[in-house]
Automatic annotation (TrEMBL):
InterPro entries: Aminoglycoside_PTrfase, Kinase-like_dom_sf. Residues 5-90 form the Aminoglycoside phosphotransferase domain. Keywords: Transferase. Pfam families: APH (PF01636). The lineage of its organism: Bacteria, Bacillati, Actinomycetota, Actinomycetes, Micrococcales. One of its GO terms (molecular function) is transferase activity. The keyword Mitochondrion does not apply. This is Phosphotransferase enzyme family protein. Transmembrane segments: none annotated.
Length: 192
C-alpha cells in the first residue's frame, strides 16, 4: 500500500481495517469512523516527513541487555513509514489518552520528537485518530483471528469500550478543534 501523503496513506489503512471488519462481521461502526476521519483528517497533513514506525512497540516486543539498552525487537507486522506519534499507540494499545511521561522523557533525552509532536497544535488530534485506528483493529481482530477461550469476552468488552470512548471523544469536538485541552490528551501519570 502506498500513497502520496500521510493523510491518504492513513485513510487507506483505515479503509483496509474497515473492510476486514465488514468481511468478518465485526461490530465496528464504519460510517462513524469514516465521519471522524473526514472531520479531523486534516490534522494528518502536519506529518510531512515519514519515519519508520514499529506500531507494536510495547515492552513484550523489546529485548534489553543487562544495561537496559534495547538490543532487539520483534513482531514487526505493523511496521510502516508514517507519523512517529503512531508508535505511542502501539506502546500502550489499551490506553486511552494519558501518555507515560517516562516514555516521552526517555524519547526526548535520546533525540526523539514524540513529546514535541504530541504538544503540537495537531498532535492530540493525530494521536486520537491513531487511537481510533487501533481500537478498530482490536475489535476486528477478535473475529478475524477467531479468538477462543474464557478471556475473549473480557477482551471484547475492553476493545469495544475503547472504541466507544474514542468515538465519544470525537463526537464532543468541533471538526476544526485540534487543541490539547479539547481532546484531553496529555502527558501524565497513567493513573492520572
Amino acid at each position: 500500500m502506498q500513497a502520496p501523503d500521510w493523510r491518504s496513506a492513513f485513510t487507506l489503512m483505515v479503509e483496509g481495517i474497515l473492510q476486514d471488519a465488514a468481511d468478518a462481521g465485526a461490530p465496528v461502526p464504519a460510517d462513524r469512523v469514516r465521519d471522524v476521519l473526514s472531520a479531523h483528517g486534516s490534522a494528518l497533513d502536519a506529518c510531512t516527513t515519514a519515519s519508520v514506525v514499529h506500531g507494536d512497540l510495547w515492552a513484550g516486543n523489546l529485548f534489553l541487555d543487562s544495561a537496559q539498552r534495547i538490543v532487539g525487537l520483534i513482531d514487526t507486522e505493523r511496521t510502516l513509514w508514517g507519523d512517529p506519534l503512531f508508535d505511542l499507540i502501539g506502546a500502550d494499545q489499551f490506553g486511552l489518552w494519558n501518555v507515560d511521561p517516562d516514555l516521552l522523557e526517555g524519547n526526548t533525552e535520546h533525540g526523539g520528537i514524540l513529546a514535541a509532536e504530541l504538544a503540537s497544535p495537531t498532535g492530540p488530534t493525530r494521536f486520537a485518530l491513531y487511537r481510533l485506528y487501533f481500537s478498530v483493529i482490536l475489535v476486528t481482530e477478535i473475529s478475524v483471528r477467531d479468538y477462543e477461550g474464557e478471556w475473549v469476552a473480557e477482551h471484547r468488552k475492553s476493545a469495544e469500550g475503547m472504541l466507544a470512548a474514542v468515538l465519544q471523544r470525537f463526537d464532543e469536538l468541533a471538526p476544526t478543534n485540534t487543541t490539547t485541552s479539547a481532546l484531553g490528551v496529555r502527558e501524565s501519570n497513567p493513573q492520572g
